[in-house]
Amino acid sequence: MRPLDSTPSIARRACALSLCLALALLPALPAQAAPAAGRLAATFSISGRPAPRLAVALVDLERGRVVRGVTDASGRLRLGLAAGSYALMVESKAPLVVSRGPRVVRVAAAGLTRAQVELLLAGALAAATQQGKAQITHDEAACFLAEEFPLLTASVEPAAPYPSARVYFRPARATEFFYVEMEATPEGGFQGRLPRPRLEASPIEYYVAFLTADGEEVKTETHSVKVVENDSACTAGRLAALGGPGEVTVYSAATGAAVAPAGFAAGSLALTAGTVAALVSGAAAAGISAAVTVTNPVPTPVPTPVPSVTPTPTPRPTPSPSPTPTPTPEPTPSPTPSTASK
Description:
Elements: H1 7-25, E1 38-46, E2 49-50, E3 55-60, E4 66-70, E5 76-81, E6 84-91, E7 96-100, E8 104-107, E9 112-121, H2 122-130, E10 135-137, E11 143-145, E12 150-157, E13 164-170, E14 178-181, E15 183-184, E16 190-193, E17 204-211, E18 217-219, E19 223-228, E20 241-242, E21 251-252, H3 273-281
Parallel strand pairs: 1-9, 11-19
Antiparallel strand pairs: 1-2, 1-5, 3-4, 3-6, 6-8, 7-9, 10-12, 12-16, 12-20, 13-14, 13-17, 14-21, 15-16, 17-18, 17-19
């Protein structure tokens, strides 16, 4: 039997050894990271105690990148970050939720941003809300400025999770409530912007409501506000803050469909296709998601087309029959008298 040739195997081993030695001799390159234009110093705790070795993820809301870090033995996290807004997320097998503290932090360029985040087990939070411990803090308004966007703010303890936060309102002479969705603020609270009220909408009733994870609604008292022309006309209390420009989507509390309540400036409402159909036909239209912005909710009437007149054809004259000429009779020749024979 011919012995196996081991030369290729020896050559491959020598090549692999040379490659390993070459890689080992290469200088170590530092890992590339996002430019650190600012710093974050955050402290995390769970039920009042430091949260050591907690995995934290920060999502860059502007660039879509994720930066991860781990807290130290005292629950502190120190990171260098590019300037921007970051959403705080906890990577843990335990069902932890933020009960107090910011959900979004803004890191300034060449500065230090501090944040303190209190976490709570989801079960403990649900038990707290079931026992009626959820408290809403809201500085009620006494007046809304006419033709301006009222901005209402509120906060709730414990701060999360709440599937929805809304401002319900009802203008004068309305039989049902409407609502707008509130948005979370970087400070951990919520804010809601109402459409621009007219003077005829006064008085307006409103209240703030949060929906818990168990489907329970926690809400404030119902407040009555007056719509005024200027600041000096608000003598009963605080004038509501003013929100920025832009359309506001308003929903019916009874049907959940987007609607255009009477008493508010048309240019401040963002209507859906279902609302346009309701304005035109007077029927409720729900479940339509295609959104269009309407600056004039009164439909422009379509002119009725004038029916075209069919021209009457001009009658053609009936031709008179040509008389048939009577043939002239040919004269009958007179007989020639015959000559008597002699």
